[in-house]
Amino acid sequence: MPLPSVLGSEIEYGITVQGDPDFDPISSCVLLVNAYQDNEEARILWDYEQENPLADARGFHVEGEKYTPNQQENIARNKTLRNGARFYVDHAHPEYSTPEVTNVRDLIAYERAGERTMEAARRAAPALLPSGQTVLIHKNNSDRKGNSYGNHENYLIERCTPFREIVEHMTPFLITRNVFCGAGKAGSENRAQPCEYQISQRADFFETEVALDTMVKRPIINTRDEPHADREKYRRFHVIIGDSNLSEVSTYLRVGVTAIVLGLVEDGAIPKSLSVNDPVKVVKEVSHDLACKRQYALERGGRMTAVEIQKEYLENALRYFSSRSLDPITKDVLARWERVLGQLAEDPFQLDREVDWVIKHKLISSYMQRHKVDWHHPQVHMLDLQYHDIRPDKGLYYVLERRGEVDRIVDPDAIERAVRTPPSDTRAYFRGECIRRYPDEVFGVNWDSISFNVGDEPIKRILMNEPLKGTRAHVEELLDASPTARVLVRNLTAS
Amino acid sequence: MADQTQKTKQGGGDAGSATSSDAGGQKKLAKKGEELKEEMDNLIDEIDEVLEANAEEFVKNYVQRGGE
User: Fold this and answer.
1) Rounded (10°) angle between helices A248-266 and A328-346
2) Would you list the DSSP string of A386-427?
3) What is the pLDDT of residue B30?
4) In angstroms, what CA-CA distances link A48 with A71, A306, A446?
5) Does residue B52 sit at the A interface (CB-CB below 8 Å)?
6) A250 neighbors A355 (Cβ within 8 angstroms)
7) Which residue among A90, A106, A384, A448 is the active-site one?
8) Chain centre distance of CA A423
9) What is the mean pLDDT of residues B10-35?
10) Whether the Cβ atoms of residue A156 and residue A229 lie closer than 8 Å to each other
11) Rounded to 5 degrees, what are φ and ψ at A88?
């Protein structure tokens, strides 16, 4: 398979309530998720029976308890939306999982639709709150006090790719890619080396190379083996080391390039390993090296900078694609990756319209210059935080975007459409359309199933093991011919 | 292309015109610099307007639970 064809992301947001001395994040999240008006009639369960987060890609199951809430709690914490996304409470954070998409441009549109969904819920929340309280939400990954929350990327790949090859080739790639997709952070935490500013929000939190954990001792390579699809055929490569980006260009490169490199690994197109000594240490050093000039020792001998390591992946990709046809998006991602790496090698600070950590650094530096303050000033920490605020009038990234100070990838209309409609080319189409057409008959949902309550009959569960089936082309006619879910189920079982 | 322009200038132009064109270039550059500074001032003004007023307290109270 030349490229992973199914992608998605799961983003946890920071939440706080101003004016609430007894702020409780979990009840605030429940309130937020229930404030969002997507589909009044729908009372849909998240189908936990289909989940298995304790299966490990190295071939074993980890002991532990699976989380299964009761029905009422389940509905209160989970909303599956008409666009095929999941908006829900995960531990103490509101989370938005995009529907399955087939390319990085759609991924950006749905990820940003998630920002708008969070903001719409936030605006609706005061009706459920005592007066004087305001919910604030940040698309960031740390509170700068040692607590981190994630942005997880998902790439569907072929099961036959050996996991050890994924570990070998993806580790050096993932620990160096922050040079173009770090979201920037003033200071350090979690007992890391002190600094004024660093490239990544998350680097301080990665403590081990390969493991199943996500909440403690976070690994560079996560081994969760839960494909949400036919397990015989697929793996879902779950990347937990990324920052949540505001910049569309950083997301474009983070996800677009990662998909390309995974495609190379699947096809055995990386001839020489780029493994570095002590990757856990390197991920932090890369984050602290704003000039991107530091060199790291490779296991094969010699030393390279993070940008040089990325350039070798790029050269492998260019060679691989030189004899293959390229779709326009992949072609554009490759060109942008090449140009950005060139600029990073020259002077990273030129990328102040494209790369998140540079955009934020420029904003803070200009502010410090005007107000004669240094990196330790509370206002600098406020800028660092408010850059990620999702209120369109207050979020500093949005201020820059409105003023035309940053580059865009996706048309704002495409984002607006993504809020309400599912992608047409994955099974998310079937999921989203069923929720739109038969809201009171959908009983439960998971990524790879949907079940219907069609009156006095037992619950009917439809399995969707193939993420590229259930598209508009496959099912629109069938849906049009089914005025109710009862008829839909009959039509499906008859065929 | 840049090289050709350079050569023509060295060959045909007199010292006077070269100086005035350099000065023009510098003026342009200075103007561009001023514009950039003004834009930046403008931006920081807007940031000052929207930045949370009680920064110290806000940042201190911003505590999240670990997630994922």
Assistant:
1) 110
2) HTTB--TTT-HHHHHHHTT-S---S-HHHHHHHHHS--SSST
3) 87
4) 11, 40, 7
5) yes
6) yes
7) A90
8) 17
9) 65
10) yes
11) -155, 175
* Rounded to 5°, angle at Cα A337 from A336 and A339: 65
- pLDDT at residue B14 above 80? no
Name the residue of chain B whose CA is nearest to A144's CA: B63
Query: A299: Cβ–Cβ under 8 A, 6 or more apart, which residues?
Result: A273, A275, A276, A277
For chain A, list residues with pLDDT below 50: none
Cβ–Cβ contacts within 10 Å for residue A96, how many?
Answer: 26
Neighbours of A369 (CB within 10 A): 11
pLDDT confidence of residue A3: 63
- Asked if the Cβ–Cβ distance from A381 to B59 is below 8 Å, we say yes
Distance CA A70, CA A18 (A): 31
Of A473 and B27, the structure prediction assigns the larger pLDDT to A473
Give B62 to chain A, closest Cα distance, Å.
Answer: 6
Contacts of B67 in chain A (CB under 8 A): 12, 90-93, 147-150, 215
Q: Do B68 and A405 touch (CB under 8 A)?
A: no
A90: annotated active-site residue? yes
Cα A106 to chain center, whole Å?
Answer: 13
Q: Of the candidates A150, A393, A403, which has its C-beta nearest B67's C-beta?
A: A150
Contact B47/A at CB under 8 A = yes
Distance from CA of A474 to the nearest CA of B (A): 35
Place of tokens 């047409």: A424
Query: A91, A28 in Cβ contact below 8 A?
Result: no
